[in-house]
Please model this.
Amino acid sequence: MPFDMTAPAPISLPVRAGVGLRTPHLKQVREQLPQVSWFEVHSENYFVSGGPALALLDKLRQHYPLSLHGVGMSLGGADGLDSNHLRQLKALNNRIQPAAISEHLCWSNIGGRWLNDLLPLPYSGEALNLVCAHIDQMQTALGRTILVENVSSYLRFLPDEMPEWVFAAEVARRTGCSLLLDVNNIHVSACNHGFDAADFLASIAVGSVAEIHLAGYEEVDGLLVDTHSRPVYPAVWDLYRATLDRFGPLPTLIEWDQDIPEFGVLLTEAATAQGYLDQAAPHALAA
Model:
């Protein structure tokens, strides 16, 4: 049964540039409470009933808007959603009351085996029905609208019944969820598969996007790999500007998950993103 959207918990991230909070920076952030507009944390790192990790989130939520970003729900998994995973996320949501909760349009487990990756979906009607059912289940359990993120990919299931961007747009239309556009992932997949990133943006309804992610990639054996280990590349900044031109200013996150630098480097990247946000038109183009 589709999620009742009559009174969902709002997505209340500030329309500013935020930073992904990772383990090497926890002590500095806890002690200094730096000037950051908002933080994102990975949900699964806080699936505990107590201890210092949750205590830190309890403290930070008093000073910053927080976003819970999941990497393990496996919305496209054929086995169905893991009830324990969903229960733990609900408990964390109830405790932290985050400004947003997001997940990925992917699958990551099968037959009780979990893979440490965000694997691409076949863009088929069957997969679309399955993902939408799981999003409805997740939103109903949480009692709030979630955001779902496009992933980068290095292979495709052929033949596609629809392009990735049509799949993502239809997910949002059917379930009432919002989209988290990872601009770096769009660029990476466009280069790997030979499509035009502009086609992706043009097919997404204005008003369906609630957040943007930015990160850096690496080139490995002729493929671009979404490693989150480098600064944002110029081509991705250009695509970010085009994204803002279409959708208007949106909450934007800097992600960095490997080869994590000093916290000041992330702040510099966030300041660059903020510069683009400040220059963006206050309203988006017509859909």
Remarks:
- The CA atoms of residues 39 and 66 lie 5 Å apart.
